[in-house]
Amino acid sequence: MCADANAGARAQAREQARQKNAAFEAERLKFYNKETAFARSENRAVIGLSRARSDAYAKAIAAQGKGRKQLENASRAYFRSKGTVNEGGRSRKFGRASYQGLLAAQSEVEGVLNNVLGRNLAYAETGAVRQFSQQRAQAREALGLPATYGAPVMMPPRNRLGGALQIASQVAGIASGFGGMGLSFGAKAAAPAASAIGSSSQFIGSAGASAFSGGGLGLMGGVSYSPLVNTAGLFG
Fold first, then answer.
1. Total-model pTM
2. By C-alpha distance, which of 166, 159, 165 is closest to 5?
3. % residues pLDDT > 90 (the chain)
4. Nearest 5°: phi and psi at 232?
5. Which has the closest alpha carbon to 59: 110, 115, 111, 105?
6. 131 or 195: whose pLDDT is higher?
7. Residue 216: which H helix or E strand, with range?
8. H/E/C letters for each residue in 66-105?
9. Residue 75 has pLDDT above 80, yes or no
10. Residue ranges per domain, the chain?
């Protein structure tokens, strides 16, 4: 099987993916802990809203009780000041002032109770809701955004063709190295033969020259030629 040229890159991608998964799990665990803290903050905010409403209502009921107590005291004072029954012979305005005092006390108590059970209770409700909203906003800000994995780590494909080409190039390099050494050995072996052939050719040439020289021809044919003989007519 051919080697994978992208084996190193694939191993590096796997390591990067493991590191990214570990970092994501750590961030996810942190956000989970923040979620539990956010849930507890929500519960505290709800409990605080309920307590604020109940406290405002309790104050309103207490104020209402005080007002009714004042109304009771005013009624007692009125009937105490009234004295005996008017049997005649008295002024027509007899007991009118005491009755007006009772009406004034009733009007004052009813006004206070209307403010306590109406406007003041609405103010308390609005303040409790605002405080609840502020606590929820702070808890949500502390929670932050959830962990995101981000872009995935891409795995490079296998490249067995590249591995085969690398092996082939290495083999070709090794073969070319051994081939150069063989050629050098052949040249060294052919050098002595070439020198022997050259010496033999020199020997034959010298023998031929001696055979075709003047002395040699004279021995062979018995005719001697002068070196100054004109040989132009012989080839005419």
1. 0.52
2. 159
3. 30
4. -70, -35
5. 115
6. 131
7. helix 214-221
8. HHHHHHHHHHHHHHHHHCCCCCCCCCCCCCHHHHHHHHHH
9. yes
10. 7-85+94-153, 159-200
